[in-house]
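Exercise 7b. Backbone tokens:
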């Protein structure tokens, strides 16, 4: 984060998590008026594959369908077809690179609500679960000085009163987003391992990530948890990318 930006955020005023427009300090929503309208529109977005909305769309990557009984996600991740940057792109971008507390808290709240809704739909008692996350590559953790999935997981655990567990480590070197589907699988398989000294005290886990694309990261992380004695793992992501994977 640039220094000026930082000072502005710390001392001057509260700003919209998307466009940096000043907003009222006491306002509940973290968006300015224009962005809150865009956010409402985003929630109404329909799936580009099945035409359903986010509550009823069940299009999942083959890998995810094969490996998880239940999968929670909150919004569709829409790619940029025009010059204009889409709202989910922008919010995921903010999540990944800006360490902006309002943004993390907002997305965690959205994810928490989807998680509760999803568990209700599938008859899952979320209180039996602990929360962990798929860690960011060390290179990026050092570069941006935080791990967005960890921050989201911590916050969701706090909101739901669940245990937050640091179970996994990322020792990978390649960035998932730059790889093809097959390369992603191979990279995910090689990148994650159980954290040194990790003792598994839980049976069931929600595994948090910011975005689900092929699902490879989530699947390989879940296999490590199953290997450590977990009996159920449910992925929880903020966005679901419908464009890059080949579903079934
Ligand atoms: Zn705004
Ligand atoms: Zn769909």
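Sequence design result:
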């Amino acid at each position: 984060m640039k220094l000026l930006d930082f000072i502005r955020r710390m001392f001057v005023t509260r700003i919209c998590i998307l466009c940096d427009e000043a907003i009222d300090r006491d306002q509940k929503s973290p968006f300015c008026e224009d962005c809150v309208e865009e956010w409402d529109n985003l929630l109404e977005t329909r799936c580009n594959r099945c035409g359903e909305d986010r509550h009823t769309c069940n299009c999942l990557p083959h890998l995810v369908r094969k490996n998880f009984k239940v999968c929670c996600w909150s919004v569709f991740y829409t790619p940029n077809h025009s010059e204009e940057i889409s709202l989910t792109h922008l919010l995921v971008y903010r999540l990944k690179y800006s360490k902006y507390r309002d943004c993390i808290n907002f997305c965690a709240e959205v994810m928490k609500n989807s998680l509760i809704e999803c568990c209700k739909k599938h008859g899952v008692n979320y209180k039996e679960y602990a929360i962990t996350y798929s860690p960011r590559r060390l290179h990026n953790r050092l570069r941006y000085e935080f791990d967005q999935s960890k921050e989201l997981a911590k916050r969701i655990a706090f909101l739901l009163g669940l245990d937050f567990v640091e179970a996994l480590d990322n020792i990978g070197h390649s960035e998932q987003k730059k790889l093809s589907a097959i390369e992603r699988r191979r990279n995910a398989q090689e990148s994650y391992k159980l954290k040194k000294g990790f003792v598994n005290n839980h049976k069931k886990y929600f595994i948090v990530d910011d975005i689900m694309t092929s699902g490879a990261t989530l699947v390989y992380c879940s296999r490590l948890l199953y290997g450590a004695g977990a009996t159920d793992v449910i992925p929880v992501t903020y966005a679901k990318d419908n464009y890059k994977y080949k579903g079934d």
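Instructor comment: Residues 16, 18-19, 21, 31-32, 34-35 surround zinc ion (ligand 1) (CB under 6 Å). The two ends are 40 Å apart (CA to CA).
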